[in-house]
Specification:
mainly beta
Length: about 130
């Protein structure tokens, strides 16, 4: 059974940092892009960052570019999101997701392209 489990969320003041982790199990993920999405109350789920298989390339939403860094450790089946210079508008539930198809050259920004999701971890940034 495939499982993705996020951790590392919490309450942080504006300007602070958090590191989210996503532990993957149930299949070999090194051939699949892994992506972070987030969803704030009353808003649609939005793309945050993606890393392709074997960490070949990364992609970031404009709103987080330069502040967030996505990485993966395939030996541990882990994906990370380092978030620096956090802003109140970063407040959301953050979800880790695994691509539906292997070996994509670019992580998709569309949630429908991901068939495995974690339960989410809450990030709250106070002003």
């Amino acid at each position: 059974q495939v499982q993705l489990v996020e951790s590392g969320g919490g309450l942080v003041p504006a300007g602070g940092s958090l590191r989210l982790s996503c532990a993957a199990s149930g299949r070999t993920f090194n051939r699949y892009a892994m992506t972070w999405f987030r969803q704030a109350p009353g808003k649609e789920r939005e793309f945050v960052a993606a890393v392709t298989w074997l960490g070949g390339s990364t992609d970031y939403a404009d709103s987080v570019k330069g502040r967030f860094t996505i990485s993966r450790d395939d030996a541990k089946n882990m994906v990370y999101l380092q978030m620096n210079s956090l802003k109140p508008e970063d407040t959301a539930v953050y979800y880790c997701a695994a691509d539906r198809l292997p070996l994509r050259n670019r992580g998709s920004r569309n949630p429908v392209d991901y068939n495995y999701w974690g339960q989410g971890t809450q990030v709250t940034v106070s002003s």
